[in-house]
């Protein structure tokens, strides 16, 4: 997050924190959280530190971007994963950071932007923020806003709520004639 309106020469957003909630068959398998040291713009601006409520020391003690890619590849190791985020910026920034560091993008599975699904499902005109969406369900978000792991857990909890609503509102398939009539009784009448 650059100070003011002018970006430093060559500026692009770098990942400084990662939070992952890994889920298989609706059961949390793993959680991962770490700060990430930026390569090209290692010094955080005051604006960034204030907005995210983090210190330069936490970032300086974080993992490298290359280490982050190895962590992400491990989640994609056994089979392609479906990555679910709230908004599209996380994946855009990850792709851009991979390109800028000459690294391969770590995921080869599906990607879902839950904020767009939420917007479409509820017919909203504007994109709703993560914490506002949770509050609209009458729930509370997990932990601290803009903390990567807390936001990942909140996204997962919201995902469960949206999927439950989708299932509830799905039109059931119409019954077949076999569902309406016991054909064994009808066949008995014709067999005698």
From TrEMBL:
Key words of the record: Exonuclease, Hydrolase, Nuclease
Pfam families: RNase_T
SMART domains given in the database record: EXOIII
GO molecular function, one term: 3'-5'-RNA exonuclease activity
Alphabetized InterPro entries for the sequence: 3-5_Exoribonuclease (IPR051274), ERI-1_3'hExo-like (IPR047201), Ribonucl_H (IPR013520), RNaseH-like_sf (IPR012337), RNaseH_sf (IPR036397)
Gene3D superfamilies referenced in this protein's UniProt entry, alphabetically: Ribonuclease H-like superfamily/Ribonuclease H (3.30.420.10)
Location of the Exonuclease domain: 4-168
Key word Signal present: no
PANTHER family assigned to the protein according to its UniProt record, in alphabetical order: 3'-5' EXONUCLEASE ERI1-RELATED, 3'-5' EXORIBONUCLEASE 1-RELATED
Protein name: 3'-5' exonuclease KapD
UniProt organism field: Metabacillus litoralis
Gene behind this protein: kapD
């Amino acid at each position: 997050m650059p100070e003011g309106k002018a970006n430093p020469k060559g500026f692009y957003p770098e990942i400084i924190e990662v939070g992952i909630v890994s889920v298989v068959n609706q059961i949390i398998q793993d959680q991962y959280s770490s700060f990430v040291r930026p390569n090209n713009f290692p010094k955080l601006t005051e604006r960034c530190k204030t907005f995210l409520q983090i210190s330069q020391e936490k970032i300086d003690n974080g993992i490298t971007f290359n280490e982050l890619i190895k962590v992400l590849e491990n989640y994609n190791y056994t089979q392609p994963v479906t990555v679910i985020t709230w908004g599209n910026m996380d994946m855009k920034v990850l792709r851009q950071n991979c390109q800028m560091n000459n690294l391969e993008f770590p995921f080869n599975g599906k990607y879902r932007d839950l904020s767009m699904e939420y917007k479409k499902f509820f017919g909203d005109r504007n994109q709703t923020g993560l914490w506002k969406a949770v509050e609209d369900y009458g729930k509370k978000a997990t932990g601290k806003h803009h903390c990567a792991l807390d936001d990942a857990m909140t996204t997962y909890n919201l995902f469960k709520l949206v999927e439950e609503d989708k299932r509830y509102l799905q039109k059931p398939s119409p019954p077949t004639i076999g569902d309406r009539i016991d054909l064994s009784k009808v066949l008995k009448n014709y067999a005698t």
